[in-house]
# Entry
Amino acid sequence: MTMLIVGGSASVLTHGGSGGRLASLEPGDGRRDKADHRQDLAGPAYDGEYHFVRIAFQSGRGSRGGFGRRRGGAMWAHDYPRADQNFLAILDETTNIVTRRSASNVYTFLDDDLLRNPIAYIVEPGFWNPGDEEVERLGEYLRKGGFLMVDDFRGGRELANLEFHLKRALPELDMLQVTEAHEIFDSFFRIVPQDVVPPYGGYPPAWYGIYEDNDVTKRLMVIINANNDMAEYWEFSDYGYYPIDLANEAYKLGVNYVVYAMTH
# Structure
């Protein structure tokens, strides 16, 4: 199936409401460094429709660490907001999920509004260094039925950092490989995972996950795109930087994740 590749708005939605309270992520020494200070970012208020939810985090040591930076922006914000908004447009066009196409929301794991949203997305987990309360809230979110998509990282060190913190959140559960036969790769589109080619070389793509009760026949709670970056394709799909077939596979992967999460 050929998918419609569309462009999304690049504007950042800001307001002073309760969602996306990034003020809590400022360094603990009270300084307002330009590179670290972030305004509150949030999409529309909760309305029962599917909103894309991106997780913001600090990448320094403990609560005093500043925001990691990549190309002048925070690590959690790589490909934001174009990737989120382009993906929402594709999800809306290809499925019957009631989607708010402009709703790219930014929350931390400490935000109560996160619990209204069944699916969350986090990038660059090699730079993720959550505090105890954050991992406790993540574990609560996942046990209550939440689903976490992890994207945009490569290498064993970054995977090990992710595994360490997920183990803090869910100490009774292990990170296991997700095989090609798993239903998440057939929940809407039939996907051959190895056809989702990374936008950069050097590491072979792999998929890992966390299952309820460590049982691969039960609900998948976390899906991990190791050595890959599907949002890179989402962000630039209307720029012509990448072949359309590669961008389509990345979109299909995201659609499958959302459909799986919404039905489990």
Remarks:
- The chain is about 25% helix and 15% strand.
